[in-house]
Each structure stands twice: as structure tokens, then as C-alpha cells.
Amino acid sequence: MAPPGPKPMRAGSSSVEETRSVLKNYQHNLALVFALKEINGDPNLLPNISLGFRIFNSYFDAKMTSKTTLSLLSSKHQFLPNFKCEALNTLIAVIGGLTSQISAHIGTRLSMYKIPQLTYGSFSPVQGNQLLIPSMYQMVPNEATQYMGVIRLFHHFRWTWIALFAQEDDSGDRFMEVLVPMLSENDICVDFTARLPAQKYVANDGNDFLRHEEFFATYFDNKANVWFVYGEDSSMLSLRIVLLLGPFFSYPPVHKVWIVTCHWDFASVAGQRLWDIETFHGALSIAVHSNQPPGFNRFLQSVSPSSAKGDGFIQDFWEQAFRCALKLSTIQGDKEMCTGEEKLESLPGILFEMSMTGHSYNVYNAVHAVAHSLHAIYVSTFKHRSMGKWRILEFYNVQPWQLHHFLRNIKFNNTAGDTVCFDENGELNVGFDVTNWVTFPNGSFARVKVGRLDPQAPPGNELTLHDDQIVWHRTFNQLVPLSVCNERCPPGYSKKKKEGEKFCCYDCAPCPEGTIAQDEDMVACMKCPQDQHANNKKKECISKVFSFLSYKEILGIALALLSIFFSVITALVLGIFIKNQETPIVKANNRSLTYILLISLLLCFLCSLLFIGKPSQLTCLLRQTAFGIVFSVALSSVLAKTITVVLAFMATKPGSRIRRWFGNRMATSVVLFCSSIQAGICTLWLSTSPPFHDMDTHSIAGEIILQCNEGSATMFYSVLGYMGLLATASFTVAFFARKLPDSFNEAKFLTFSMLVFCSVWVSFLPTYLSTKGKFMVAVEIFSILASSAGLLGCIFTPKCYIIVLRPELNTRDQLIRRTLFSLS
Questions:
Q1: Residue 702 dihedral angles phi and psi, to the nearest 5°
Q2: What is the tens place of the pLDDT at every residue in 98-149?
Q3: Does the pTM exceed 0.70?
Q4: One CATH from 1.20.1070.10, 3.30.499.10, 3.40.50.2300, 1.10.238.10 for 554-823
């Protein structure tokens, strides 16, 4: 850009005839001209001052770029760097170039003169280091922002199997070095990598593409449905040539999701206007943010060869775009003459777009940035001063290096409403647009904004997408494409690594018992909370059912009815004995012990009800201790009865001293002594480690067992052990006394009852320890009922039979006769 002058310089020239041009790039020139028209026509911005410009073509060639840069440092019509004769034609800033390499070539030369350079195309972070080229300002945000955005895009659609394409040059090497590790760190695998030939915008014999034929043929048929391409406009042309050659080499059709960076523009040279672009339908681009300045479309409609005097590019553009000739001397073959009235809007979008593209928008903003910086110098120079002619001349002598301070701190809103400012690295402080390329059969296409990439957003929220607005390639039937190494693991399964393959390739293993996988592709199955368990398909946790022996279920009802039934039977037996308490069979073998035994058995049947129903703190304290004490009283009574039989026989011998021990006092002492030991054990248990209400969430899947924790297993088994000791003692004494002569064979009945009791409780322990939950409680209730019923039935059934059905045997004479008969 030239310094401020009395009138704009809108001319440009091309010293080398192009054989292949990217026509769409001509819009960059028009954007510059449009911006200068706005600035020079604005009375509030640089009043009475006009800006001029010169445009040079670098041909994407290092040699031409160097020559062009030196031309900028020379006088207008002479190639003498560092020698300038025009006072009003001093270079103040440079806008360019479109690619990284061209920008670097320009920057390394301009930095020596501290001339500001505003790059409107791509520029890699390494080359853009401000320590290397401090005079450079980038109209495109840092490339690292794009990488982060693409990874967020992959995560959003859950694409983990990607193909990478990069331009075959230094920038492509840096891309691979940076992105491949980033993908791996974010759980994304690279299926394969490919390099695109570095095609130039001049004639090419095609050998670069033919030598890649075998390479591309190998990889065009692969599992990756997403192809991420890094390159610049020239590599777009190269890729299109490779795709065009595909059918001639029997390549399979290419139906992929193309992801491209902001460096790309969907552009073609004139000869490619008829090439099919359907392959790129549905592509997604991390595009340079663009907007539409008011009046730009109208300005483009007014462009024609007659209105662009001094434009050294329009003839070449017009002839290639409309396939005609502006001058008779240039007519070749069957070309017709151009009328000059052709309209740019009639051109397909692949050759020229009527809306401002991202790169053109960057040029537009760059021009305004320079103008606003000059305006800031203008204001600071002439503030509070009269604007004399010599002051204007002083302003014309502003040096390029003076612009840096104002460019770094510039901040303004352009006519499109966007804020333009640079960060501390000299990069434009703006995000990217996510655009969707929609192609049409007539060769045109549309860019649809479907999202936004904002590097200033909180981590994880940088990318915003509108999925419903995205159009995918037609082969995907508008479903979100999959790009994975293998099918995703469904819920209920977790990923299992395949040996020798990339981590994105895996098998699916069902979740172990008690764990779930709610989503697809879970790395590991998760355990459910303690109050929940996995459903049958291992997809979700569901609440566990509270489990306890309830009065509402058949087992609880049956055991409760049995308990009540035996309690009623025991009460009836007690009633019978009380009613017939004066009869010999009731008086025989200590009537008081009989009552104590019956009452303790009644309480044993009733205490089994403490085990049924939802456990509480009170029932947990009572159930084992009450059962232990009551059962000990019953066993003590049986032991006392057995001892009474033995002592009664021994007391009948002449001169026996046992007679003094014989009587109710001895029997009562046995019962009290034996029961008090059990009561002491239970008291110690309750005072040291009492039972408490507890929940077992692990023993049975899907259930939370409401139970009574015994507190101290030692004390619990001490209670059982003591009852076992009493039972063993009673059985032993009764066994040895079974043949002693007594009335109604009571010793035999006691022996048999204790045999039943011991059998029940010996089988109880292994059964009790092998069951869980309510069935454990049911086993203990059954053992209580069975052993108590055994004592009741074996001891009292024969007596009740005699009392109720054979009362003639319940006499004193019959008692004496049976005793004598036993002695004989």
C-alpha cells in the first residue's frame, strides 16, 4: 500500500503471463479497491487525504516474490532498491501474501526496514513467531486454534479413525509433527497419512500426480470415512487432479467427509470449471471468519473492463472467466469477442463468488487497519494544532516504522459490524466459522455457516455446532457418518484392546457382574452404587429391592402360622396339665418342672415371631438374647427332669443318702443355675457389643438385605454353644437313665426328645452358614420351631394321650403297678 496522497492509485500490473490462474483470487484485489473507496470517501477518516496502492503478482514462486518485494522498495518505474525519488509514493505497509511461504519470503525482507506486513492468508505458528518477523501482523488467528477446533469437531461426532492429507512441503511437515501427537493424546487414531503434490499455478506436465498413482490407489479404499486435509489453494488443485485421474486408474469412488482448514478455498482454475465437484459435497471447513460489508455486492455488480481502467489483472481474469477475448489480437481458436457487459454473478461459485470470501474479508480488514492506524497518527500529530500546508507535508513523510505502535493497539468496528484488533502476538483476535460446503449439479456450490470456533470461550466450549443444519454427502443418507476402526461397543460392554493394533481398534467385552456401561465405547465398566444394581443387560443401575422375611410373603406367613399353631398347642397342653394337676401322671416327675418347661416352650414358639418382619433396633436386641435365655430355661428344665429321674431311682435304695437331695428345691436350683449362666452371657453380650440393625448390599445381587448384625460373632456362638452344652448334658443323662424304672417311661421320652433336639441343631449350623438374607432367618426360625416341637411332642404327647384318651391309666394304683413291673 502506498502512502497517503492527493488521489488513489488503483493500478496494478503483471509482468509474467499466467497460463493457469485461480480466478477467485481476483476478488482479493476487488476487496482492496472497495476498502480504499470506502476510506477515501469517508470524510471522518483521514479527511482531505487519499490512499493509493500497487498490486503485484508473486505467482506463488520464491524467485518472483523476492523480485516483487525488491520492486516495492524501489521507485515506481525503476528497479533500484533503497533509491526512491517520489515524495508521495513511499511504501507505508504491505498486505500479503496468500500462503505461508510467500508471506515468509516477503516478511524476511521487509523486517529489515521495519515495514508493517499484514498477511491475509495462512501463516504457520513457527514462521509467525514475532521474534523472527516482528513487523508482521496476521489477519488469520493462530493455526493452533484450528487444530483444537478440529479435535473438538472429531469428539463432537465421535470420529476416532481419521485419514490425514498434507501438502508436500515444510508447512505440511510441521502440520504432521504437531497434529499427529495431538490426535493420539485425544484418543483419535490416524488410519493413514498422505502427502499432496505441491502443484504450482503455472503449467505442469502431470508427472507429479502420476508418480502418486500407486500410493493413492492403495488408500482410497479404507475404513476411514473422515479425511482431514491440510493445504493451501494450490494443494486443492492438486487434489482435484488426483481425483480426476481416479477413474482412469480404476480407483474406487471417493465418498468421504472432507475436513479442511482455513487455508483452503473451494477454487478452481478456468480449465477445471466443468470438473465434477460432487465429491466435496458435505465437506466441513474451519474457515476464516467473514462478513458482508454493505455495498460490496453492488460494487461487484458494477465491475467491468470499461470501469477498471489501469487494472492490469482484469483482462486476464475476464477472458479466462468468460472464455472470450477482449482484444482481437488475443483471439485464439474459436474464442469469441467479449462484450464487456458480462456479469460476475453469472459465473459459477467455483470460479468467482459474489459474497466476500474469508481471504477477501481479511484484505478488507487489513486495509482498514492501516487506514485507522494512519488516522490515529493524523489525530495525534495535528491535535490542538492548525492544519497548515506544511503540516500536511509533514504527515506525508510518516515513516513505516511509526505505524507499528498504532497497529498493535488499534481497535475499531468495521462497516460489517465486526471488531478488528490484534493480540500481543500480532494475530487477529477473532475466531473461525465452521462452514458446510453444499454442491449443486450445475457446478456451483454454497457455503453454509453451521457453527463457530471461539478460542476465547471456556475450555471445552470453544466449538459451537448446529447439527441440524449440516448437509452430509449423499451416500450417508443424511445420517451422521461413522469413522471408527470397528463398530462401537454397545451399552453393557466395554472396550478390550486388540494386541498389535492401534488403540482405536478393540473388541467388546461384556461387563462383569455388578457393573454397567451406560454409553457406547466405555473404556471400563462402572460399579453401581451400594443401593443399586445392574440390570440384566448391564446398561443401567436400578434400585435394589429391600429384602427381609415379611409377614406379607408366603414363607413368612407359613412360619408365623406354625409359630402361632404350636403356641396354641402348648397353651392347650398347659391347660390340660393345670386342669389335671392332681392326677398321678401330672404329679409324677415334678409338676413344677413340667409347668416351667411348658411355659418356656410357649415362649420359644412366640419368640420366633421376633425374627419375622422388618428388623428394628428393638427386635435385633431381643431376638437372639430372648431366644437364648428362654431355650436355656427349657433345656435346664429337661436336664432337671432327667436328673430327677436318676435321683428318684437312687433314692429308692435302702440307706441311700440321695434322699436328702431329692425334691423341688434341687430341681429349681438346677433350672436357676443353668439359666443364670446363659442370662449372664447375654447380659455381657448386650453390654459390650450388642446386635444392631444393619443392611447387607453385597450378598445377593439386586437386593438390600435388612438384617440384624449380631455385633459380636463370638458372643452369638457362645450363646449357641452353651445351649449345645445343656442339650448334650441332658441327652447324656437321659440316655443313661433310659432303662431306669419310672412311671410312664418318662426317661425314654426325654432321651428321644433330646435326640430330636440335638439332630435339629446339629444340622442347623451348616445350613445357617450357607444361606443368606431372609432364608437364613427362616432356617433359624424353623430350627427353633422344630426343636421346640420335638420337645413338646416327645415329652408331652404320651402323657396327653393318657390324660385325655386313657384316663383309666392315670391312677395311683396303675402308677405303683407300672413301677413294680419295671423293677421286676
A1: 85, 0
A2: 877 788 888 888 888 889 999 988 766 544 444 457 788 988 887 788 888 9
A3: no
A4: 1.20.1070.10
Q: Which three cell numbers stand for residue 63?
A: 524467485
**Nearest of 136, 123, 116 to residue 3 by alpha carbon:** 116
Q: Mapping DSSP to helix (H, G, I), strand (E, B) and coil, where does residue 710 land?
A: coil
Name the 3-class secondary structure at 155. Answer: helix
Would you list the DSSP string of 202-259? S---SHHHHTTHHHHHHHSSSS--EEEEE--HHHHHHHHHHHHHGGGGTPPP---EEE
- Give tens-digit pLDDT for 185-221: 998 999 888 887 765 544 444 455 555 555 555 566 6
pLDDT in tens, 503-535: 889 999 999 988 999 888 888 999 988 888 888
User: In CATH terms, is domain 144-290+432-476 a member of 3.40.50.2300?
Assistant: yes
Domain with CATH 3.40.50.2300 in the chain: 4-142+292-327+339-421, 144-290+432-476
Q: Which of 358, 321, 365 is nearest to 447 (CA)?
A: 358
Distance of CA 101 to the CA centre of its chain: 40
3-state helix/strand/coil string of 270-295: HHHCCCCCHHHCCCEEEEECCCCCCC
Instruction: Provide the CATH topology of domain 4-142+292-327+339-421.
Output: Rossmann fold (3.40.50)
Q: If you search the block for the grid coordinates 487525504, which residue do you land on?
A: 49
Q: What confidence tier does 169 reach under pLDDT thresholds 50, 70, 90?
A: confident
Which amino acid type is present at position 28?
H
Tally DSSP H helices, then E strands, for the chain: 22, 28
Distant-in-sequence, close-in-space partners of 204: CB < 8 Å, separation ≥ 6: none
* Domain span(s) for CATH 1.20.1070.10 in the chain: 554-823
